[in-house]
Amino acid sequence: MSVVFARVDDRLGEFALRTLDPDADAALLHRWVTHPKAAFWLMQDADEARVTEEYARIAAHPHHDAYLGLWRGSPAFLAERYDPAHVELVGRYDHEPGDVGMHFLCAPVGTPVHGFTRAVLTTVMAWLFADPTTRRVVVEPDVRNTAVHALNAAVGFEVVGPIAKPEKDALLSVCTRAQFEAAVARAAADRAATTRTEGAPA
């Protein structure tokens, strides 16, 4: 269960991704994916055995993998990476070389941390683009998941349009490396401007 990627957020500290162990992590993942806030993950009724089976299947798949996300060393989110030419989106959109599909899920918490979910998504995107062969990240969240649509836009995603999948009506969106880098630069500039304003004399 080695760390495969780490990033330090200038406000929230270190985020990292490690290899997921379907057996050892099953109880933790079960709590996350069956929580009411994870309704769009579509595993609300799963028992722990089914969660283990699902992530063992992903671990064995040649075009799909999953990672446990850490915040300051503790489990805090889940990330999946897949090849949309072989998984999820086969024949459902105009695939381009270098496309990578992604899912992410933040662990449910009692007291939300401001900016946490965006920091997680930024970390996942930075991880995907750390691979030089990745040209675009492709996502297909439920059309009703307006919160994640806003987050996706904040990190550079552009909406392609709705698509029908067997399990949901999805909103296909894509983000190029340049779009992501521009969004990160804008966010940094906005934080710097806010800091200057807050530090200005009254």
List the helices and strands and how they pair.
Elements: E1 3-9, E2 13-19, H1 26-33, H2 48-60, E3 64-71, E4 74-82, E5 99-106, H3 116-129, E6 136-139, H4 146-154, E7 158-165, E8 168-176, H5 177-198
Parallel strand pairs: 5-6
Antiparallel strand pairs: 1-2, 2-3, 3-4, 4-5, 6-8, 7-8
Helix pairs in contact: 1-2
Helix and strand element order: EEHHEEEHEHEEH
Distance between the termini: 51 Å
**In terms of structural class, how would the helical and strand content be classed?**
alpha+beta
Approximately what portion of the residues adopt beta-strand conformation?
A: 25-35%
Give start-end ranges of low-pLDDT stretches. Answer: none
Largest sheet: 8 strands, mixed
Helical fraction equals 25-40%
Rounded to an integer in angstroms, the radius of gyration calculated over CA atoms is: 17 Å
Strand order of the largest sheet: 1-2-3-4-5-6-8-7
Tell me the total number of β-strands: 8
Number of helices: 5
Write down the overall mean pLDDT.
94
Which word captures the global form? globular
Specify the oligomeric state: single chain
Please describe what this structure looks like.
Helix content is 33%, strand content 30%. It is of the alpha+beta class and 202 residues long. It has an eight-stranded mixed sheet with strand order 1-2-3-4-5-6-8-7, with helices on both faces.
